[in-house]
Amino acid sequence: MSFAEQLSRLQAFLDADELHEEALDYVAAHGYLTALSICPEPVPEREWIDALFSEPPHYRSDEERDDIEATLVQLQTHIARQLASDDDPEVPCELDLGDDPDDSDLRGWCIGFMEGVFLRESVWFDDAEDEVSELLLPIMVASGLFDEQPEFTEIASDRDLVDSMVEQIPELLTALFLLCQAPEEKPALLKPRHH
Fold this sequence. Notes:
Layout: H1 3-14, H2 26-38, H3 45-53, H4 62-84, H5 105-118, H6 121-126, H7 129-143, H8 150-156, H9 159-167, H10 169-181
Helix pairs in contact: 1-4, 2-4, 2-5, 5-7, 7-10
């Protein structure tokens, strides 16, 4: 079975209604795996797979479980490879929150990404807290998870600002990846700004 076929099977599985309501759907899982690929410390597969589903799904068979888990691991490897390449990473949805942000795939992707960050929150901010916070800001804003914090409320009310932030997400992912995975090759955009 080709990787594309495995992915569409994974997508059908993750988007099915019978999964636990806290489980991540396909787009959110993609965001989650992207965060795991960037995380400075590898998270053990068993831990992140279990966290992704929230509680063990009802697989039809052990074979189905092995297939789904293997595809998740492959997808994570694929995303990590993409992040390490020179191309902008693909986000599997429009970079747009649309008229109803809560219903947008991008919001789901960003929530998944933040779930991945929360698995190892301290590690993310260990080395370069300011830069990481700055690069994560558009994802945090688009996730809607922080809306009750005043500075987020202010940003969220400026739709043009939010739109311009979310459009930067692919390049921010590359910068985060370099920052967390190859800190000695700090990308130029993180050089100290002269005031």
